[in-house]
Write a sequence for this structure.
């Protein structure tokens, strides 16, 4: 792996896919000349293990509301992450995700014996595939409560269905008051429902934008009053203009 950092995503076993979107691995030898990487919000929370130094580290990564530009990785790189589906991390930990929005929380700050034990097992096993198996074994032993699992299911359905017109529409769809919806989203995701709905629209818009469709056409298709509103929304999530995003993600094929 000399001179290269290799990124891999690994799918968990079927019983875990509602909670765990994937595991990912970033390993190799980083080069100072490599370009920085823009990490866009994805509606998920992560558990990140860093085995690249003599003393392994681990952090919970809360739901992101804006992009983060990661500088080039230098030297030995060995990162392994668990990317939880929206609501999945809350279901496993039972803590409000509002404590971690757009920030890192050290592993020990949230009580999770399985995560501390997992860190030791992963540190001793360099293979990403073998690490995934340890993750599956650890998470299959957990027993999230029924209400938390119901939230994960509802959030997954929201990702697939027609987006509601706004928070009031979503509250009516789910049979909740707007205040209750606000409170639950803070616990499940760490963001307000309006913020999550904005993100879901951005997520659906992004492939079209990167595919070369014009901002003017997309503004109409995705319900923006004018093109400038779409551009402002892209900047809010990506910290870059549509033109900059397309330049960073050239079309292939």
């Amino acid at each position: 792996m000399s001179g290269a950092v290799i990124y891999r995503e690994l799918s968990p076993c079927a019983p875990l896919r509602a909670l765990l979107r994937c595991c990912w691995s970033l390993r190799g030898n980083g080069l100072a000349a490599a370009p920085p990487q823009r990490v866009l919000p994805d509606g998920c929370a992560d558990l990140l293990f860093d085995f690249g130094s003599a003393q392994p580290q681990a952090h919970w990564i809360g739901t992101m509301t804006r992009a983060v530009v990661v500088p080039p990785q230098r030297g030995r790189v060995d990162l392994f992450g668990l990317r939880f589906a929206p609501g999945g991390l809350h279901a496993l930990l039972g803590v409000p995700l509002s404590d971690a929005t757009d920030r890192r929380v050290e592993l020990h700050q949230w009580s999770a014996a399985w995560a501390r034990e997992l860190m030791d097992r992963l540190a001793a096993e360099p293979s990403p595939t073998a690490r995934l198996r340890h993750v599956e074994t650890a998470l299959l032993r957990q027993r999230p409560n029924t209400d938390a699992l119901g939230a994960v299911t509802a959030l997954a359905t929201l990702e697939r269905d027609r987006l509601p017109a706004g928070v009031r529409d979503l509250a009516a769809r789910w049979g909740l008051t707007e205040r209750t919806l606000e409170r639950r989203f803070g616990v499940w995701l760490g963001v307000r429902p309006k913020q999550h709905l904005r993100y879901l629209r951005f997520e659906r818009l992004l492939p079209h934008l990167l595919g070369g469709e014009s901002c003017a056409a997309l503004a109409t298709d995705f319900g923006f009053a004018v093109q400038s509103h779409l551009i402002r929304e892209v900047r809010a999530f990506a910290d870059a203009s549509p033109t900059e995003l397309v330049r960073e993600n050239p079309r292939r094929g």
The two ends are 26 Å apart (CA to CA).
